[in-house]
């Protein structure tokens, strides 16, 4: 199992990135601000060990619907809610005083992609002689 040090970025078109998630919240927010093109960011605790970050200003007419984020939101047992624009998934809140969050493991990233119904091809093992 890999270390919990990643964030999963999900875009409305179904593309995604797995990025390193820093231990410091300020550094993480800077990464998300660049990815979302805004500093208006909020986190929703989906599970105790997972938060979904989104652009609070993204809405119909300003950003495309992100049906992949909605699927994960519903899988967490929450009612259907539309998400617009890019979202990020990280681990859960670790310190309520400073808002620090853990990262995700690579295995968790893969599981969230399955919940979002994004098909990820299996990479073949390299051939060696």
Helix/strand order: EEHEEHEEEH
Percentage beta strand: 15-25%
- How many DSSP H or I helices? 3
The coarse silhouette is globular
* Order of the strands making up the biggest sheet: 2-1-5-4-3
Report on the biggest sheet. 5 strands, antiparallel
Number of separate strands: 7
Note the quaternary state here. Answer: single chain
Helical content band: 10-25%
The termini sit apart by 28 Å
**Average predicted confidence as pLDDT:** 89
What structural category characterises the helix and strand content?
alpha+beta
Report low-confidence residues grouped into runs of 5 or more: none
Written description of the protein model:
The chain has about 130 residues and is an alpha+beta fold. The protein contains three helices and seven strands, in the order E-E-H-E-E-H-E-E-E-H. The strands form two sheets. Strands 2-1-5-4-3 form a five-stranded antiparallel beta sheet. A hairpin with a 4-residue loop joins strand 6 (about 95) and strand 7. The radius of gyration is 15 Å and the shape is globular. The model has no long low-confidence stretch (mean pLDDT about 90).
């Amino acid at each position: 199992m890999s270390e919990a040090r990643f964030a999963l970025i999900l875009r409305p078109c179904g593309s995604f990135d797995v990025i390193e998630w820093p231990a410091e919240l300020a550094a993480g927010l800077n990464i998300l601000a660049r990815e979302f093109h805004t500093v208006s960011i909020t986190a929703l605790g989906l599970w105790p060990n997972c938060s979904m970050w989104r652009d609070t200003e993204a809405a119909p007419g300003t950003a495309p619907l992100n049906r992949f984020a909605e699927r994960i939101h519903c899988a967490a047992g929450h009612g259907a809610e539309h998400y617009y624009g890019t979202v990020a998934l990280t681990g859960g809140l670790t310190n309520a005083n400073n808002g620090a969050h853990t990262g995700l493991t690579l295995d968790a990233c893969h599981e969230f992609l399955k919940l979002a119904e994004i098909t990820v091809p299996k990479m073949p093992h390299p051939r060696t002689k």
